[in-house]
């Protein structure tokens, strides 16, 4: 917050804080309690998913998701064997067609012990606890919902494939969605073949469900955000505080340095209670490790629907052309889309 100079505001209801000054230390119970749908999807149900008549696969996806939750039981007294429910369902499709809504609806409809998290949430949990202890904790659930199953990081993908295999052998079921970049077109919107290859040992026990359609929110895939003018920053902060908001204000590089010392599993705790975030002196990133940490933070900000803004340059511009065309381009394109959404709500 050093760039703010004399700006230090607080009221009985609103205040300014700095994430750099926070050392989050959530308990294991707190970390596990975060394995629920994001705020945006707390009310997501099958009956409020509105399939487009132009894309019949959406209504079919609803039916198949319901069928996954309530598989057929024993067909008769003289049946030779009890039908084995499928181990998992994989919702594969384009950006903005409601895959996460359906995944959350699956979670809400399932009656047993269940967990919901992004791909990042699960890999972060493994990183925090180690594979064996993470496996032990996740074995307590009957259903794991995995949003945006990533296939662009071989190490993480292999880790999750192993986790699914270990948990699947214990009878745990899975529901997952594809990780599709906003600018994907044609068959590039679908990742079923790659997913099946990565979970080869379990692929025949997963039902692949294709969900076609257009982005229902019609978000621009290459939107550009504008920074706040330095001269407007103080007035903007005063207005937010007067509204009773808790606004975190941090210098871009200082926050990135702080994130390097905070485990990604603790990012949700770091931003807990924050109503908006302003990053000052934003600039194009030249350190990919820092860029990927920022992507992880953006994911958590998006899950918590924390509005975002900056000075310097717009935050959609911080990823270089090199990064956007490299191996992690899906992560960066997703982050840009989410930054655009969070900035528009600031």
Automatic annotation (TrEMBL):
Gene3D superfamilies: P-loop containing nucleotide triphosphate hydrolases
Regions annotated as coiled coil: none
CC per GO annotation: cytoplasm
One Pfam family hit: AFG1_ATPase
Protein name: Unannotated protein
One function term, GO molecular function aspect: ATP binding
InterPro entries per UniProt: ATPase_AFG1-like, P-loop_NTPase
PANTHER family reported for this sequence: AFG1-LIKE ATPASE, ATPASE N2B
Keywords: ATP-binding, Nucleotide-binding
